[in-house]
C-alpha cells in the first residue's frame, strides 16, 4: 500500500499534493468559521445556522458551475478569479457580522461566500487523474491517485479546524490577600 502511494507521488510530483492540500484548508473552515462568527456576533444560533447553511448551499449550487467554467476556461484563471471573489465575499460577511447586520444580509453574504469558494479538491482530482493518465498509469494506479486525493480532502477537514483555533488565553495569576 505504501508503495502505491509512493508511486502516486512520483506521478503527481510533490508540489501538486502540497499546494492542493493547503488550498483545501479554507474550504474546511469556511462553513464552521462563519457559523461560529455569526453565532458570537449575533447571539443567535438560528441566524448562525441560516448563514452557515446558506454558505453550504451556495457552495453546493455553484460548485458544478465553477467546474464547468474550469473545463472551458482552464483551472488557473477560474481558481484565481474564484479566490479573489471569495476573499471579497468572506470579507463582506465578516464585516457584516461584526457590524451586527440583519439576518437576511448575513444569509445573502453567506450564500455569496459559498458560491465563490474555489473548488480546489475536485479540480485537483481532475488534474491528478489527467497527469496519471498522461504518464500511462493503469486503472489501478488511477484508483490509487483518487484514493490519495480523497485522503487529502478528509485530512484537510480534520486538520483545518484545529489549526485555525487560537489557544485559550493563559490564566491570570491570582493575587493573594
TrEMBL record:
<keyword id="KW-0812">Transmembrane</keyword>
<dbReference type="InterPro" id="IPR011701">
    <property type="entry name" value="MFS"/>
</dbReference>
<feature type="transmembrane region" description="Helical">
    <location>
        <begin position="104"/>
        <end position="124"/>
    </location>
</feature>
<protein>
    <submittedName>
        <fullName>MFS transporter</fullName>
    </submittedName>
</protein>
<keyword id="KW-0472">Membrane</keyword>
<feature type="transmembrane region" description="Helical">
    <location>
        <begin position="78"/>
        <end position="98"/>
    </location>
</feature>
<keyword id="KW-1133">Transmembrane helix</keyword>
<dbReference type="Pfam" id="PF07690">
    <property type="entry name" value="MFS_1"/>
</dbReference>
<dbReference type="InterPro" id="IPR036259">
    <property type="entry name" value="MFS_trans_sf"/>
</dbReference>
